[in-house]
């Protein structure tokens, strides 16, 4: 895969919480724990989500990178409405606001909003489908991952394709595969670290400065499965107990 970096900043990526006050409290905890950036998963109501996104920007100030994930919850009209609010609040990206069946819908959205779009998270076709999103002019960022975009090979093809157009390829989701991809892909911004509770607990691979470090074990550092040859078990390091330097 190659190695571009040995550490990368982590983005705190929330689940959906009940109310604005909870989101603001979670954001405060994330910043206190060292996370330099926050991504919202909200309610799927364009107007309520817009108010939340504006409130979060006011709460954290202009120095914190914020992003928003729509989880494919909107039609074009509501996606446009929310996109204007995200631009006004200076959000880094607007992720998957519409189901990814229609590249044309994303092209229309890109023509109507100024906030950068992050596209191609769940659609079939790996790098080929990503190529269509890029050719349409809809993409400023594209998603890549081992789980949803064709394995490690598909993920790296997407990253290289995006880089050839000077776009960023953002790695989706936490885990050891994502750690390796973040270290190998120059044109990615953050490791996505999930925040699943209103009492925020920093993911073990994230240090106090909000950084994730390159795994140092053999291979992907996954623990051996039941059929793994016992004589090779010493070559695999369990990430749950491995020291992060």
What does this entry look like structurally?
- The chain has 245 residues and is an alpha/beta fold.
- It folds into two domains: 207 residues, Alpha-Beta Barrel (TIM Barrel), CATH 3.20.20; 31 residues, no CATH class.
- Helices cover 35% and strands 16% of the residues.
- Strands 1, 2, 3, 4, 5, 6, 7, 8 and 9 form a nine-stranded mixed sheet that branches.
- Helix 5 links the parallel strand 5 and strand 6.
- Helix 2 runs parallel beside helix 3.
- The two termini are 21 Å apart.
- The C terminus is likely disordered.
The number of domains: 2
Helical stretch tally: 7
* Structural class label: alpha/beta
Calculate the mean pLDDT score and round it.
Answer: 92
Assign the CATH class of the largest domain: Alpha Beta
Please identify which CATH superfamily of the largest domain we are dealing with. Enolase-like C-terminal domain
Bin the helical content. Answer: 25-40%
Examine the coordinates and then state which fold CATH places here, giving the name of the CATH topology of the largest domain.
TIM Barrel
N-to-C terminal Cα separation, in Å? 21 Å
The low-pLDDT segments are: 235-245
**Level-2 CATH architecture of the largest domain:** Alpha-Beta Barrel
Topology, number of strands: 9
Beta percentage is 15-25%
| N-to-C series of helices and strands | EHEHEHEHEHEHEHEE
- Using only C-alpha atoms, the radius of gyration works out to 18 Å
Biggest β-sheet description: 9 strands, mixed
